[in-house]
Amino acid sequence: MSDESSSEGHGPTVAADGSGDPDSPGLTVVHGASELVVGPDEGVGVETVADAAFAAEDGQVVAVGETEEVLREYPAENADVAVDADGRLVTPGFVDPHTHAIFAGDRTDEFEAKLGGTSYEDILAAGGGILRTVRAVRAADEATLTANLVEHLDVMLAHGTTTVEVKSGYGLSTDAELKLLRAIAAADEAHPVTVVPTFMGAHAVPEDREVEGYTEEVIEEQLPAVADQGIAEFCDVFCERGVFDAEQSRRILAAGLEASLTPKVHADEFADVGATGVAADVGAASADHLLKTDDEGADRLVDGGVTPVLLPATAFALGEEYADARRFLDGGTPVALATDFNPNCYARSMGFVVTLACVGMRATPDEALRGATHTAARAIDRTDGTGTLRPGAPADAVVHDVTAGVEIPYNLDVNTADRVVVDGEVVHE
Ligand code: NIG
Ligand code: FE
């Protein structure tokens, strides 16, 4: 989120005497937490502090520790924003590093068709799925797309997400992809959630096109236009059976890199077509899905320093087997978690994803919480402490209506997020 969106989204905090920077939240103190998730531990879990607090100045964490200690240096009565967690759990804001949250139209009938046994790939091959959303997005104006995304950001924020990656990819033409990316930028500006934009012109092959010619269009037309506008940070490709093969994906991602867009790969969702090798070779920030990844593919990601992003809500929605999270975790590699929110996977709650990671993929609650915060931030190259509450990190935090981390996945169906702080200001309660 930019500074401007911070003040637009929830208003400036001015010191009581009217002095100071009107955009600066000043001193924030969140205290009285039963348990506070600080950040990653030495292994693949999280470090927590009991009876804890943190203080932030101008939206950046400056101290974290036991409440008594933190309040000694930063008394709550001196704070511009003081939040009494009142014996409840505090975590870093959730980071959702893989969504297709900007779209138009309705695909609820496809949900019913899938329940009846029709496969996702059959729906796509028949011009439904992504291609149907593309038709709706092309017909929608930019303001509508922004408004749709803002509505989804409201829901995400209410569930404790403070940073979210959003992909384009339902435009599949230069104009429509740029329209989506501009709408993403406008939603970021208007909303306290930090939005990280990804260009995904290679999300599907448009109905009237063949894959090779369209690959060239993405490389020769779409990518240069996106780079010229400077409105995307990552370039993602659906490297999949019947979509873009490994060679086409490699070319698109290499061209993206030339245009300063960091690669990401949709890998092994339905079939293993070598996407993990592509991700490792191009130095992707992440490889996502990994439902059909074998040991060799997993090793290539680990050796290549590519963050695995697991999307258990997608497997849940498709009725597929979950990704093998333990293969990574048992080898000492943390995994990131994301919602994959899109019309095929209508999930906006990272708490739900944490539950699925534990119940479906046998992650421990600590491993899942790390996946939804610090490792998720790594998957979108956030190295400023996002996903932690360590000094220097953005003061993005959630007070949950429970007392311990384990209760986030334990609550199968209830949103535990109560109060949400972004950049040191309370933006949801
Ligand atoms: O990550 N697999 C490709 N993209 C999305 C699905 C998008 C859609 O069906 O609209 C995914 O699952
Ligand atoms: Fe996806």
TrEMBL record:
<comment type="function">
    <text>Catalyzes the hydrolytic cleavage of the carbon-nitrogen bond in imidazolone-5-propanoate to yield N-formimidoyl-L-glutamate. It is the third step in the universal histidine degradation pathway.</text>
</comment>
<keyword id="KW-0378">Hydrolase</keyword>
<feature type="binding site">
    <location>
        <position position="342"/>
    </location>
    <ligand>
        <name>N-formimidoyl-L-glutamate</name>
    </ligand>
</feature>
<dbReference type="GO" id="GO:0019556">
    <property type="term" value="P:L-histidine catabolic process to glutamate and formamide"/>
</dbReference>
<dbReference type="InterPro" id="IPR032466">
    <property type="entry name" value="Metal_Hydrolase"/>
</dbReference>
<feature type="binding site">
    <location>
        <position position="100"/>
    </location>
    <ligand>
        <name>Zn(2+)</name>
    </ligand>
</feature>
<dbReference type="InterPro" id="IPR005920">
    <property type="entry name" value="HutI"/>
</dbReference>
<dbReference type="InterPro" id="IPR006680">
    <property type="entry name" value="Amidohydro-rel"/>
</dbReference>
<feature type="binding site">
    <location>
        <position position="269"/>
    </location>
    <ligand>
        <name>4-imidazolone-5-propanoate</name>
    </ligand>
</feature>
<feature type="region of interest" description="Disordered">
    <location>
        <begin position="1"/>
        <end position="28"/>
    </location>
</feature>
<feature type="binding site">
    <location>
        <position position="98"/>
    </location>
    <ligand>
        <name>Zn(2+)</name>
    </ligand>
</feature>
<feature type="binding site">
    <location>
        <position position="170"/>
    </location>
    <ligand>
        <name>N-formimidoyl-L-glutamate</name>
    </ligand>
</feature>
<keyword id="KW-0408">Iron</keyword>
<feature type="domain" description="Amidohydrolase-related">
    <location>
        <begin position="89"/>
        <end position="427"/>
    </location>
</feature>
<dbReference type="GO" id="GO:0005737">
    <property type="term" value="C:cytoplasm"/>
</dbReference>
<feature type="binding site">
    <location>
        <position position="170"/>
    </location>
    <ligand>
        <name>4-imidazolone-5-propanoate</name>
    </ligand>
</feature>
<keyword id="KW-0479">Metal-binding</keyword>
<keyword id="KW-0862">Zinc</keyword>
<dbReference type="GO" id="GO:0005506">
    <property type="term" value="F:iron ion binding"/>
</dbReference>
<feature type="binding site">
    <location>
        <position position="340"/>
    </location>
    <ligand>
        <name>Fe(3+)</name>
    </ligand>
</feature>
<feature type="binding site">
    <location>
        <position position="340"/>
    </location>
    <ligand>
        <name>Zn(2+)</name>
    </ligand>
</feature>
<comment type="similarity">
    <text>Belongs to the metallo-dependent hydrolases superfamily. HutI family.</text>
</comment>
<keyword id="KW-0369">Histidine metabolism</keyword>
<feature type="binding site">
    <location>
        <position position="203"/>
    </location>
    <ligand>
        <name>4-imidazolone-5-propanoate</name>
    </ligand>
</feature>
<comment type="pathway">
    <text>Amino-acid degradation; L-histidine degradation into L-glutamate; N-formimidoyl-L-glutamate from L-histidine: step 3/3.</text>
</comment>
<dbReference type="Pfam" id="PF01979">
    <property type="entry name" value="Amidohydro_1"/>
</dbReference>
<dbReference type="GO" id="GO:0050480">
    <property type="term" value="F:imidazolonepropionase activity"/>
</dbReference>
<feature type="binding site">
    <location>
        <position position="266"/>
    </location>
    <ligand>
        <name>Fe(3+)</name>
    </ligand>
</feature>
<keyword id="KW-0614">Plasmid</keyword>
<dbReference type="GO" id="GO:0019557">
    <property type="term" value="P:L-histidine catabolic process to glutamate and formate"/>
</dbReference>
<protein>
    <recommendedName>
        <fullName>Imidazolonepropionase</fullName>
        <ecNumber>3.5.2.7</ecNumber>
    </recommendedName>
</protein>
<dbReference type="GO" id="GO:0008270">
    <property type="term" value="F:zinc ion binding"/>
</dbReference>
<feature type="binding site">
    <location>
        <position position="266"/>
    </location>
    <ligand>
        <name>Zn(2+)</name>
    </ligand>
</feature>
<keyword id="KW-0963">Cytoplasm</keyword>
<feature type="binding site">
    <location>
        <position position="107"/>
    </location>
    <ligand>
        <name>4-imidazolone-5-propanoate</name>
    </ligand>
</feature>
<feature type="binding site">
    <location>
        <position position="100"/>
    </location>
    <ligand>
        <name>Fe(3+)</name>
    </ligand>
</feature>
<feature type="binding site">
    <location>
        <position position="98"/>
    </location>
    <ligand>
        <name>Fe(3+)</name>
    </ligand>
</feature>
<dbReference type="InterPro" id="IPR011059">
    <property type="entry name" value="Metal-dep_hydrolase_composite"/>
</dbReference>
